[in-house]
Amino acid sequence: MDLLDKFDPLIAERARMGDSQPDPLNIVMDEMLSATEAMIGGRKIILAGTNNYMGMTFDPDAIEAAKDALDAFGTGTTGSRILNGTYQGHKALEQALMDFYGMDHAMVFTTGYQANLGMISTLAGRGDYVIIDADSHASIYDACAMGNADVLRFRHNSVEDLEKRLKRLPAESAKLVVLEGIYSMLGDRAPLRELIAVAKAAGAQVLVDEAHSMGFCGETGRGVAQELGVEDQVDFIVGTFSKSVGTVGGFCLSNHPKFEVLRFACRPYMFTASLPPSVVASAISSIRSLKNAHNKRAHLWGNVERLHGGLKKLGFNLGTESVESPIVAVCLETQDQLFGMCRALLLEGVYVNVARPPATPTGLYLLRCSLGAGHSADQVDRILEAFKAAAHTLQLPLNEKLRAASASENAKAPQARDAAVATG
Amino acid sequence: MSNKDLTNKDIYERICKIVAPFNQKDVSLFPATSFANDLDFDSLTVMDLVAAIEDEFDIVLPLNMLPDLETIQQLSDAVEKIIKR
């Protein structure tokens, strides 16, 4: 028996997919033309699935800061944050985060994945409880698998289900409720105010992951908790530099007086090399500019309205009935439709993400678009044209839906939401 | 009858009823039926099943117990143990 035999079904599936080119799971960006365009397979492609929400990857100030840091501090730290891997830049980055969020403590991790992995697995230990949303990101599920706490899962965004499960737990036990401001697959928002109220009533502490909401939700871009005015109820905020901040890395913020001890207990923080100085410098530059990026935020939301409204008008079935985030998920019914559409879109000059179970709720095949402040209105129109042409090539059954949609304004979209909630 | 009075057989039978709607391939259910191998449940289905079982018996069945619960009998035994704790 060979160790890799267990992957034979996956190998067979990959082989089947590789027959049709381009392969959506084997995309190579040969050249980056801007924050919104790349050369892929000799074609100029509009990027509509890169989570580059604030278009910061080519921000001139961030690039200059990174170049300066590269010259002054070298290419890497070659060490852990608790040994030789903390430079003045890492401390300045943590200060920039504390200033941005108005909180007392910040820890910077090497990726957003590691921030969730480290925080959740370290905060909740043996005898404690972690309560997570069914649609949680893989990093949250993996954190639960790594830690020693008992893990419970509540129905996606269901306040009632969370409350019911919390009530079954011993009153005196320590509990961590883990929420996300925006869920990355369907792009839907959490009812944070209600969920946090129920969590607090049960004596739980609350961690909110704002990975897909930092930069453009809330008055100064702190996320959904800021927008809903519940930041003072959140014990731990987790986030990432790999989306709105335009580079890579993760972080956690808290006002907890004992927070600093986690630097000496959190293994995904301790046993990995820290971020390179150039990455740290560009993150500082971008975070500082995000606070006052009101015009960019307005432009981004305008882009999303245009794409969401346009796709709905074309007869596509969307993950959310109205705009909730810069993520616009087109719901398809089969894997063949999903990969067929992705390929056809690439041939029309547009890249979007493919997402399927188990990364998505059961039975949902998603063409996941994410827009950024870097997209122009003209690019959004070109994305819409590409969707129209690709659907025509694949003969997707849109016309019937289009008719139904015009007959009753929100004919199809609510069904997708219900399906997601029922299976989530 | 309170949940504490349920026999292992009662619990097994109630679990089989809960499994039924998830059993899309209509596999015959036995104590040794395996969720992964016989019923072909993926991880999401198993977690949805756990939620249904928690609600049926009003118990806490943490997800981290799942790796040890491969068959319907093993799941019934675990539920019985939690109820009588």
TrEMBL record, chain A:
Any one Gene Ontology molecular-function term assigned to this protein's record: transferase activity
Cofactor(s) for this UniProt protein: pyridoxal 5'-phosphate
Keyword Ribonucleoprotein applies: no
Keywords associated with the record: Pyridoxal phosphate, Transferase
CDD domains per the UniProt record, alphabetical: KBL_like (cd06454)
UniProt-listed PANTHER family: CLASS II AMINOTRANSFERASE/8-AMINO-7-OXONONANOATE SYNTHASE, LD36009P
Family listed: Belongs to the class-II pyridoxal-phosphate-dependent aminotransferase family.
Protein's UniProt name: 8-amino-7-oxononanoate synthase
Organism: Iodidimonas nitroreducens
UniProtKB/TrEMBL annotation, chain B:
Transmembrane regions listed in the UniProt entry: none
Protein origin, superkingdom: Bacteria
Domain Carrier: 9-83
Keyword Transmembrane helix: no
GO terms, molecular function: acyl binding; acyl carrier activity
Alphabetized UniProt keyword annotations: Phosphopantetheine, Phosphoprotein
Cited InterPro entries: ACP (IPR003231), ACP-like_sf (IPR036736), PP-bd_ACP (IPR009081)
The name this protein goes by in its record: Carrier domain-containing protein
Organism: Iodidimonas nitroreducens
Taxonomy of the source species: Bacteria, Pseudomonadati, Pseudomonadota, Alphaproteobacteria, Iodidimonadales
